[in-house]
Amino acid sequence: MAKVVDQERAGSTGPSTFDVERIREDFPILGRREHGKPLVYLDSSNTSQKPRQVIETITEYYERHNANLYRAVYALAEEATSMFEAARDKLTRFIGAPDSGSVVFNRGTTESTNLVAYGYARKFLREGDQILVSEVEHHSNLVPWQFAAQATGATIRAIPLAEDGTLDLTDLESLLTERTKILAVTGMSNVLGTMPPLKQLAEAAHAVGAVILVDGAQLVPHSPVNVQDLGIDFLTISGHKMLGPTASGGLYGRRELLEQMDPFLGGGEMIREVHLDRSTFKEPPWKFEAGTMNIAQEVGLGAAIDYLEGLGMEAVRRHEQELTAYALKRLGEAGARVFGPTDVEHRGGAVSFWFKDIHPHDLAQVLDTEGVCIRAGHHCAQPLMRILGVPATARASFYIYNTPAEVDALVEALEKAEGIFVA
Ligand code: PLP
What we know:
seven-stranded mixed beta sheet, Aspartate Aminotransferase, domain 1, single chain, alpha/beta, Aspartate Aminotransferase, domain 2, 15 helices
């Protein structure tokens, strides 16, 4: 892989040069051995590993700064509050949001989509309205809309998958009409890597008066994102897939929309005034942050953002494109049927495949004995599996710490599995 120096964005909390071997030293878990073999972690679309900078930030938070937010006037609580809000400022900058009032913290993408489905869709949709999704969506970008449709009488339509693994936008005009109120689409598929043209979709949605929500679970960790350039209304963010702790992340929402929306969860801290029979609420983002928050996790996410910004997201994306291109080539040569687009300019590093008619679960088990971690299953995308005509796929997914040698290890392990299952 090329070494990319990006001095301008150099952070003090991680390497400023894209040197994979140097990056790997920051991830203690990568030193682990599995069944006597070096750990080859190819499941970052599921959850990413964490650098010591993130782990140390969390430890330090609990050892030196822990207190609850906003509620107390002592110095320790003010410190915890300012660390939490500093993390919000970092996430705001990272996704190009106009101000931190448009960034809500919560447990990640699933909670964010539910927040919009509850606070926006249930409030504004009526019978006969439509929600447009796509056939490649993760369950977390389908099920919340199904709940909202059931509650409002709206219906769900889907942009179809094209043969080449992209979204087929040929009939977009008939799918996206003045009846469409929400377009909810992935920024990067967790199964196929597909990256739809978000700017074009945002313009098309706005032209018919709909809002667009982008499922950013895979996009934000792996590619530069600027919500204002894209012109999108909502973006969901999974901290645990971008080097951050589990249960970190949140939702970007256009400020006017967040203001119009109903709160999602009720409780302490999200209120302005409470009477026995009614309440008024704080302004966004706090209106959507009820109860004690995931403070240490979001502070840890702030450290993860520092780390990624130190490398530069352009360099992160470039590294994964190179690795994905290499994986597509090696898997193809080994006889795997690879799903999804082939052009790495328009796809991410989640590579799903079917190998020699070996069930993906059997494959994953044999690979595990070789120290290689891949995911096997429907990847929370059952409608897509039906369209692909398979019960499951095997999936290798890459991140900043993966190397071409690990792609080679994957292919060698596949050949071993072939020796076991294919006589
Ligand atoms: N959307 C996509 C495309 C995903 O890959 C995932 C997780 O795998 C999710 C949503 C759910 O994200 P979270 O774990 O933050 O709820």
